[in-house]
């Protein structure tokens, strides 16, 4: 009987801890500086791919995005969580993206690729973080898509997806969570007596 109560109490504490942890930004353990991160991903024309990275004060993020064929990619870094992919319905990029980005490169350079024995587009971006926080990286293919890009970084990145869930009131969620915890507590107390 006592063992069941301890198990239920542990379960409640775990749930409460998870709820408290979810009120802030997610904890991202991708702060392994000097580790090379590589990713390959195929994007359609006008499509985007997001990544998130946790940077400390004065950390220097180095990004290199290289096309496999003839695609042209643009790279943007944001210091706030993106809520839009900045691609308009006609496939063009919203002009306000450069106002919201803290760093960007829209000018690819040509490099030789032995894979196709021809030149391909490559975008390089260096950014020094002015504060400790999460930064969001967006890659957009703007011409000659679909194409696959190879992404290299000196920090570990994690894929990020913009949630398409409409916003909800945090107060309602917190109230429901507290109500559920008290409900479970009183059920356990009633069961115990």
UniProtKB/TrEMBL annotation:
Keywords: Membrane, Transmembrane, Transmembrane helix. It comes from the Archaea. The chain crosses the membrane at residues 170-188. This is Emp24/gp25L/p24 family/GOLD. The lineage of its organism: Archaea, Promethearchaeati, Promethearchaeota, Promethearchaeia, Promethearchaeales.
């Amino acid at each position: 009987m006592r063992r069941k109560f301890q198990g239920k109490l542990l379960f409640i504490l775990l749930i409460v801890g998870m709820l408290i942890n979810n009120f802030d930004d997610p904890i991202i353990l991708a702060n392994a500086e000097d580790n090379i991160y590589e990713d390959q991903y195929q994007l359609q024309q006008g499509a985007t791919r997001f990544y998130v990275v946790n940077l400390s004060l004065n950390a220097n993020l180095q990004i290199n995005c290289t096309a496999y064929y003839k695609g042209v990619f643009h790279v943007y870094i944001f210091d706030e969580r993106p809520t839009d992919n900045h691609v308009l319905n006609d496939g063009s990029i919203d002009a306000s993206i450069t106002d919201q980005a803290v760093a960007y490169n829209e000018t690819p350079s040509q490099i030789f690729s032995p894979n196709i024995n021809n030149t391909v587009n490559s975008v390089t971006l260096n950014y020094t973080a002015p504060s400790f926080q999460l930064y969001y990286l967006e890659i957009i293919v703007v011409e000659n898509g679909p194409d696959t890009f190879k992404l290299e970084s000196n920090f570990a990145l994690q894929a990020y997806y913009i949630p398409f869930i409409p916003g909800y009131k945090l107060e309602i969620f917190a109230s429901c969570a507290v109500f559920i915890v008290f409900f479970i507590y009183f059920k356990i107390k009633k069961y115990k007596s």
